[in-house]
Amino acid sequence: MADTDYDLVIMGSGPAGLTAGLYAARARMKVAIYEKSLPGGQVLTTDWIENYPGFPEGISGTELTQRMTDQVRHFGLDIQSDEVLSADLSGGVKEIQLSEKTVRTHSLIIATGASPRKLGIPGEDRFFGKGISSCATCDGPFCRDKVVAAVGGGDTAVQESVYLTRFAKKVYLIHRRDEFRAEKILQERAMASDKIEILLDTVVTGVNGLTHLESIHTRNLKSGENAKLAVDAFFVWIGILPNTEFLGDAAEPERDEYGFIRTNERMETSVPGVFAVGDVRSTPLRQITTAVGDAAIAAASAEHYVVNL
Amino acid sequence: MADTDYDLVIMGSGPAGLTAGLYAARARMKVAIYEKSLPGGQVLTTDWIENYPGFPEGISGTELTQRMTDQVRHFGLDIQSDEVLSADLSGGVKEIQLSEKTVRTHSLIIATGASPRKLGIPGEDRFFGKGISSCATCDGPFCRDKVVAAVGGGDTAVQESVYLTRFAKKVYLIHRRDEFRAEKILQERAMASDKIEILLDTVVTGVNGLTHLESIHTRNLKSGENAKLAVDAFFVWIGILPNTEFLGDAAEPERDEYGFIRTNERMETSVPGVFAVGDVRSTPLRQITTAVGDAAIAAASAEHYVVNL
């Protein structure tokens, strides 16, 4: 077997990366985790999590991250603060270019996550995860009998707005164009709901609140009219982008039409020894639960791959 | 849409069933969970769990079960103690036969788990989960510098015994026949390890200990000789059986060669509206992490299925 720095390098330290690290460290693989910002990934920007099993009252994103990080450290694995600039995955040994050095590894788990596309309006960053959300499954149940707004024109925006009517008493569905891109049947359901008020030709220009989100500002692009809507929550569904900058325009590993990395059920990508897990993967659902499940499988696959080299 | 008792019935209340219930209850589906014994499934027989992310010091199987059960109840969903005797899955509405009634549901998530095959020897039940294990990934790391025994002749037994040498100082690999069924390359690795002592033509006849596992009794089937081996842990790898009795000899949903239920990545089985998750599913890895990931996906798929009826 060729000489390397590591058996396994894990990129990213959200729940997926941390779980892969936990499994790999327990399996006594020679493993490193690299994180370019803070451990936790998107979870860190999540105020309160109710749907990760094991925490009956829910748990904050920061606390869950701290607990997962502590657990990984408990097995002697620390998270290294460094950015993967690029990766040469063409050979048997993968070369990972960090900010000031290159490390060589037999296998790689990509757990870099995805980023919800943002509107880029005042107040958005401040309230993201605290009133602004991109996940109805996660945050819809917090909206019982509340007034909420949603923005977007695709399947997700329209379908999830209908889903929100299970909880909210009113949903403003806002889209900047004069018609939705979403499937007709989804549009019909939204239009049939007496809880949904559709605002077309409308953009959201700002988000306001003192200690919590209180209102959004909108502008009608045709009339030029500005309005202020009192809302308790605001869902932004204008797309989600996989964090794969380090791959540049490489053809491999194979990605889906939206840029997410394709895998099989063993989390193997099209490149032998390279695995993808969590939000960066082409997957039907993006949750903490699915991230930790993916990661356990990938760690076992990586271990199996390295043993068989 | 036809009239039913439930949108969704979940069979089983291990981590997979409880997580499916959590997601479905939060999505305000009309849902029931049936459990024939106690909530928790196999986790309940697990003394200490180190590889479920979020518990830095580890957590006992009973406590994790209690926490997951409380979390489901928090969303108004209780676990019903009843056994599914059979299920008629042929129609659009599924009919679930319980001990004293039949319930009708639009969708079904099968989360009944699997049972490791046991040796049926004295002491086995008492120490299962407390010294006796069927999962090296879970319990191998507890065996640092210990002496352990493993029984079985297939791929799992031989491969996992080699894996155990990462932790244990000695591994007895015991098989009742005069040769292994496992792949040759796996056998070669086991034979090459100076930590593994192979005992062929040998059966384990008993398990002993006062407060914890201390030794196993063996008998050589050729010589008739009995022996006592001092060991700290004992791994039983003689097979695992899916808990699918309620399906009888039905051809659907489709199962793999070992009887585990096949699904696609959305956890859909070959029967529309029927989903399978966790250990009962044909899957590359059986862990709490993978069970909760499967379950979140299945709940979303079931919700989507019912909305589109």
CATH-level-4 superfamily name of the largest domain in chain A = FAD/NAD(P)-binding domain
Main beta sheet strand tally, sense and closure of chain A: 7 strands, mixed
Structural class of chain A: alpha/beta
Element pattern of chain A in H and E? EHEHEEEEEHEHEHEHEEEEEEEH
Largest binding interface between chains = A-B, 47 and 47 residues
Beta content of chain A: 25-35%
The CATH class of the largest domain in chain A: Alpha Beta
CATH architecture verdict of the largest domain in chain A: 3-Layer(bba) Sandwich
CATH topology of the largest domain in chain A: FAD/NAD(P)-binding domain
Helix content of chain A: 10-25%
Keywords:
24% helix; 309 residues; FAD/NAD(P)-binding domain; alpha/beta; 17 strands; 7 helices; homodimer; 7-stranded mixed beta sheet; 5-stranded parallel beta sheet
What does this structure look like?
Two copies of one chain form a homodimer. The first copy, chain A, has seven helices and 17 strands. Chain A is an alpha/beta fold. Chain A folds into two domains: 178 residues, 3-Layer(bba) Sandwich (FAD/NAD(P)-binding domain); 119 residues, FAD/NAD(P)-binding domain. In chain A, the strands form four sheets. In chain A, strands 1, 2, 3, 4, 5, 6 and 17 form a seven-stranded mixed β-sheet that branches. Chain A has a five-stranded parallel β-sheet with strand order 8-15-9-10-11. In chain A, strands 12-13-14 form a three-stranded antiparallel β-sheet, with no helix packed on it. In chain A, strand 9, helix 5 and strand 10 form a beta-alpha-beta unit. In chain A, helix 5 packs parallel to helix 6. The first copy, chain A, is elongated, with a radius of gyration of 21 Å. Chain A starts with 5 loop residues before the first strand and ends with a helix. Chains A and B meet through helix 1, helix 2 and helix 7 of A and helix 1, helix 2 and helix 7 of B.
